[in-house]
């Protein structure tokens, strides 16, 4: 395929400041070369060399791309045997320069099949040709997914990986190969093609070499790309994450994280190293996060001691990495209990929490603390460490931008209150309860509101069954906890959460000591709901429509509707709650509306079959209504 010289001249005529005669003569010689049976490759080489040089001028790239030069070069490259390396080098220079910051030319290159042709050159043994292929791939694949795909699918990506060898003097080839591969892994399908154990080993080995040799000081760009690519390769792949541990590379990576530094470099270089250390921290966290390695890593006493020491390090990447790993290891009750009792990890974390204003580090600390709060024996110890008072300030309105941290804080307080009376006392007596109730009123995130309300249900279920609790109960009722608990039952789509609220309300409306406050709380049962716009954890509007039925209507529907997905055991609890509401309403003046609203559904309860497990509860309810 020859280029139309007349068309080329026409396109060049409108461009000022170029040597159009040089361009035209070079293209004419390439046209001649295409037609030759016995090709004069030297002619093609010199022509391409001149074209590559003039194509440093951006204005020439569009006209030369539009007249078909790319296709002509691909035809010549296909016909060139392995002995025409000089021509191949110069042709690739032309194509690489045509592609520089030029998407339409990249498309022409893709359509012409040049990417696959160039892949065969990577095994040529010619160092300069291999280097030029890398440069061509770098220019042509930048932000252009179709070529990224072809580099991977043609096998070129694997050959580029083979070029990354420690201890080999780099003439630019390794640097460009690393850059090309870093571009490729941003694309999911491409990443899957090249992400395997061999690739991970290559990258880890190169990073280890750069650090242990000290060469990283002069190779920050390469190290940055190596680390970025490695992180993308292993992310969410247990086998690849495990490979780093199995290679025995963890200690070296931790050494780099703790000790890599630049002494006399510019601030820009120091900032780059800091970014690399942050990436390395993420790599280490991923490598230590898999279930299959958790036991062996935890049982490595040297590693565990190192992590505990790293948590106190002043460096942000170092202490964050340590806390995240400790959180990953704290995923069994046995580990959590030992970390708290033997290593006083909760005390250490709370001390770190109070010393930092870094929200990301606080998030790591809170995540680890939440794991530690799960085992029953830890609840008292962590409560005694003053955890509730320390973390609860995260629920103040001034912290509302830190939604992830607030959500973890809610989870910690909820877990510490589950069945632990002393921690419940702390929540009520230290005014944490007010922070929780204000938080529930203030936020519109469904999950956060529900979890915070479960703190209230845990408080009720723990305090109400404990002796000498009158003062605590009064403080809780003064905080108006019934409304949010009813809202949890009314609006939640999860039966377990509904049941949580139901059980707490049964205790409240069974408590004869609370007769004086029933007058305020009973009307909430049949009050018209205030419909509000709900959001999810990401801050987007929820797709679910807000529940428009009243609390009583929801209970009746959950019990009696044929489409109800509430398990029968929870339906029985709901019936029991209705009985308690009826009994409470009869003891308080001017509360007949609640009884009447329940009575209006009597026919629905009467339809429950005797054979149903629910029958004896609905029968008890109907009898309570008749009294």
UniProtKB/TrEMBL annotation:
PANTHER family: RAP1 GTPASE-GDP DISSOCIATION STIMULATOR 1 (PTHR10957). It is found in: Cytoplasm, Cytosol; Endoplasmic reticulum; Mitochondrion. This is Rap1 GTPase-GDP dissociation stimulator 1-A. InterPro entries: ARM-like, ARM-type_fold, Armadillo, RAP1GDS1. It comes from Choanephora cucurbitarum. GO terms for cellular component: cytosol; endoplasmic reticulum; mitochondrion. Residues 223-283 form a coiled coil. Keywords: Coiled coil, Cytoplasm, Endoplasmic reticulum, Mitochondrion.
């Amino acid at each position: 395929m020859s280029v139309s010289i007349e068309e080329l001249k026409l396109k060049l005529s409108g461009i000022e400041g170029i040597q159009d005669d040089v361009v035209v003569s070079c293209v004419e010689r390439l046209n001649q070369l295409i037609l030759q049976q016995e090709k004069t490759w030297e002619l093609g080489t010199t022509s391409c060399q001149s074209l590559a040089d003039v194509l440093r001028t951006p204005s020439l790239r569009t006209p030369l791309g539009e007249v078909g030069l790319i296709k002509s070069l691909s035809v010549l490259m296909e016909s060139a045997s392995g002995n025409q390396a000089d021509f191949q080098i110069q042709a690739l220079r032309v194509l690489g320069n045509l592609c520089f910051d030029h998407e339409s030319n990249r498309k022409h290159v893709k359509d012409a099949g040049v990417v696959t042709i160039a892949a065969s050159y990577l095994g040529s043994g010619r160092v300069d040709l291999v280097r030029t292929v890398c440069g061509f791939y770098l220019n042509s694949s930048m932000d252009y997914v179709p070529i990224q795909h072809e580099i991977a699918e043609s096998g070129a990506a694997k050959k580029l990986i083979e070029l990354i060898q420690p201890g080999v003097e780099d003439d630019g080839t390794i640097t460009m190969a690393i850059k090309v591969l870093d571009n490729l892994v941003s694309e999911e399908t491409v990443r899957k093609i090249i992400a395997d154990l061999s690739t991970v080993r290559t990258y880890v080995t190169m990073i280890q070499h750069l650090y242990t040799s000290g060469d990283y000081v002069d190779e920050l760009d390469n190290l940055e790309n190596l680390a970025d690519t490695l992180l993308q390769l292993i992310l969410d792949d247990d086998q690849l994450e495990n490979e780093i541990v199995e290679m025995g590379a963890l200690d070296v990576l931790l050494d780099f994280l703790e000790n890599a530094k630049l002494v006399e470099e510019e601030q820009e270089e120091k900032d780059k190293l800091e970014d690399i250390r942050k990436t390395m921290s993420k790599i280490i966290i991923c490598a230590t996060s898999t279930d299959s390695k958790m036991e062996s890593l935890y049982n490595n006493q040297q590693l565990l001691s190192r992590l505990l020491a790293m948590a106190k390090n002043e460096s942000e990447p170092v202490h964050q990495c340590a806390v995240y790993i400790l959180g990953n290891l704290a995923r069994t009750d046995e580990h959590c209990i030992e970390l708290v009792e033997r290593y006083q990890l909760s005390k250490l974390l709370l001390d770190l929490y109070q010393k930092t204003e870094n929200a990301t580090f606080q998030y790591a600390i809170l995540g680890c603390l939440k794991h530690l709060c799960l085992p029953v024996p830890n609840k008292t110890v962590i409560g005694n460490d003053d955890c509730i008072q320390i973390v609860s300030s995260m629920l103040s309105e001034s912290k509302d931008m830190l939604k992830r941290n607030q959500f973890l804080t809610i989870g910690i307080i909820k877990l510490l209150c589950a069945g632990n009376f002393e921690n419940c006392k702390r929540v009520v007596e230290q005014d944490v309860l007010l922070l929780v109730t204000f938080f529930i009123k203030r936020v519109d995130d469904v999950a956060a509101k529900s979890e915070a309300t479960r703190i209230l249900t845990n408080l009720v279920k723990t305090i109400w069954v404990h002796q000498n609790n009158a003062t605590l109960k009064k403080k809780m009722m003064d905080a108006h906890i019934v409304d949010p608990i009813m809202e949890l039952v009314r609006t939640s789509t999860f039966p377990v959460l509904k049941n949580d609220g139901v059980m707490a309300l049964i205790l409240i409306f069974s408590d004869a000591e609370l007769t004086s406050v029933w007058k305020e709380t009973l009307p909430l049962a049949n009050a018209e709901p205030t419909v509000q716009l709900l959001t999810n954890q990401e801050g987007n509007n929820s797709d679910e429509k807000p529940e428009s039925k009243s609390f009583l209507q929801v209970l009746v529907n959950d019990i009696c509707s044929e489409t109800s997905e509430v398990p029968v055991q929870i339906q029985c609890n709901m019936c029991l709650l209705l009985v308690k509401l009826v009994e409470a309403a009869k003891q308080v003046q001017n509360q007949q509306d609640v009884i009447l609203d329940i009575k209006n559904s009597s026919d629905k309860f009467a339809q429950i079959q005797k054979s149903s497990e629910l029958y004896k509860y609905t029968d008890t309810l109907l009898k309570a209504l008749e009294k």
